[in-house]
Amino acid sequence: MLALVGSSMDLSAWGLGHDDVNQIALDRLPVEIKALLSPDNRKDFVKDAKVPDDFTPWSEYEKKKGKVITPNDLATLSNYKIKTPYALHSAKGQAVNYVLLYRALKDRDGDRIAFWGACLAHTLADEVACNHDPLIHYLTYAFKGGYGMKFGKAGMLDFGELCRTPEGYALALEALGPSSPKSLGKEPQEVLVEIMLHGLRANKFMTERSVIIASAFDPDAGQGALADTRFAMAELGAYGVRKWLEAITTAWALVNESKPVQVLTPELLADYKARHTKFVTARPLSADSLYAPWLKLQTDSNIPAIGVVVEPSTSMNKGGLSFGGRLIACAILRELHKSKIPFRVIDARKPEIKLHKRSTSLAILCSGKLQNDKLVQAINKYTDDGGKLLLIGGEHKGLLGPLSEVLTLADPDMLPVTTKYGQNNLDYIDQLSVYFCGPLAKSTGEQAYPFIHNPDTKAGWQKPKCPYWFNETLSSDIEPLARIELNGRCKVVAAVYQPEGKGRFAFLPEYLVAPYLLTDKPKLSNPANPQLDRISSTVLSATLNLLH
Questions:
Q1: Cα dihedral 57, 63, 64, 70 in deg (nearest 10)
Q2: What was the pLDDT predicted at 5?
């Protein structure tokens, strides 16, 4: 089953881009290491560029690769619970991969050097691949790949697209530069920690360039913007190449110095955890170029404003809140700015700095899994003091007072978005409709709204999941705002709590705010500037009016 699911997914960082990263890396490999590789090894190094996207268990995969994966290698993979090639993507998986590459170099085994080297090159490049940025991810798997929306033809999502032409390939080499790889350290344990921290640093390098890359999809993008996009893509591919060259040359140096790279000790893992925490804590929100303009435009701290909670990217889809909610939050910030409503960006890592009633008139949170205890505590304190909350869920963790008491897990076979990856609801999404009711119906009308695009894309971390709907019986203080209907069954999925007619809490499922699911208007010309569509904008505005 895992193998089948893995083969059906299209979430590799790049397609041909991985081949290009490996080919450039092979061309730049120092002569003494390259001499260990036969002509067939060199071909395999490029051919195996996508191995880590396979979900086949190692015990079965070993049958395909024969002696390339030794019993000792299998034992090490098993010991660290790296069950499939895909598990090499994790920080621990990359460190174990490095140990296996070191052993292959020590044994001067060209077959194993090519295989484990190809695996490590893939995962190091994955961390900097632009489709793992929230903005480019949404563009790749929702707007373009899922919904079939059309944009300018000059944009690129894959390093391989750049390298298709001699000019693009030359630009990648220019971005790489002529310099020799630097050492990752002198001691094996230090080097392994550096390997494990790679994802954090690469992610920051990547997210700083996402808006530049997305800008090329604007059909009106000028030549300067297109040139910037091409060089930004070249930088991403070059970064992956450079980090792999640093990794393998450092391993070769350790081999020549007879310094064994063997195990992930408890001390090493503790060092990694401490440095990981330090890096994530210090990472500026502005490193996500998606957030940068709103940090500059937010209201002065002395003026009461609506607070929109956001979290920084770290690595791949890691985070405590909704991955797709990062783009939705920026679209909401754009909506507030356009409507001249004072707003403030609240950092989910340190919510206590801005989340207090005297300066935050209302908080908006795209919750996702809501795995952030510090944030939950801060919101509880804020609402206990009388603060108001619009939760776009996701999980609610009891933050919505009486609303939370009547939220219940929904029948998954009736929801517009499933929780499973690689599968979707194509068999019934065309029969499912949204009806707005109560105060929202005054703004949107009472007619049925079908999903013009399926929010349950076959691939993508951005799927607007929400596993909840409301109980049948609601008190007079709770007013329904929207319901879904399928084959005669009808369930309330959005509501507002208004004690004595004054709004305190509102809950909207993420699939009612995520853009371009119920309408294609207004047209999204430049995906570098996320925006709500006409319906989600109306839903947001009407809900804010009930609370603010």
A1: 90
A2: 33
Within its chain, how far is the Cα of 470 from the centroid?
Answer: 29
How many whole angstroms separate alpha carbon 409 and alpha carbon 421?
19
The full 3-state SS of 148-208, as one line of letters, equals: CCCCCCCCCCCHHHHCCCHHHHHHHHHHHCCCCCCCCCCCHHHHHHHHHHHHHHHHHHHHC
Q: What pLDDT, in 10s, does the model give residues 235-292?
A: 999 999 999 999 999 999 999 999 999 889 999 999 999 999 999 999 999 999 999 9
pLDDT of residue 519: 97
* Whether the Cβ atoms of residue 133 and residue 37 lie closer than 8 Å to each other: no
Split at pLDDT 50, 70, 90, the class of 12 is low
Domain ranges across the chain: 2-282, 285-547
pLDDT value of position 1: 28
**CA–CA distance, 51 with 515 (Å, rounded to integer):** 34
Beta bridge partners of 89: none
The model's pTM: 0.94
Using omega within 30 degrees of 0 as the cis cutoff, is the peptide bond preceding 394 cis?
yes
Q: How many residues can be counted in the chain? A: 548
- End-to-end, the C-alpha distance of the chain in Å comes to 49
Question: What pLDDT digit, counting tens, does each position of 296-314 carry?
Answer: 999 987 889 999 999 999 9
Q: pLDDT by residue (tens digit) across 66-97?
A: 779 999 999 999 999 999 999 999 999 999 99
Q: Residue 393's beta-bridge partner residues?
A: 509
Extract the tokens encoding 11: 């979430």
Architecture of the domain defined by 285-547: 3-Layer(aba) Sandwich (3.40)
Domain 2-282 has CATH 3.30.70: no
| CA–CA dist 468, 183 (Å, integer) | 51
Strands 389-393 and 433-436: unpaired
Contact 130, 213 (CB under 8 A): yes
Beta-ladder partners of 470: 407
Note whether 2-282 and 285-547 share their fold.
no
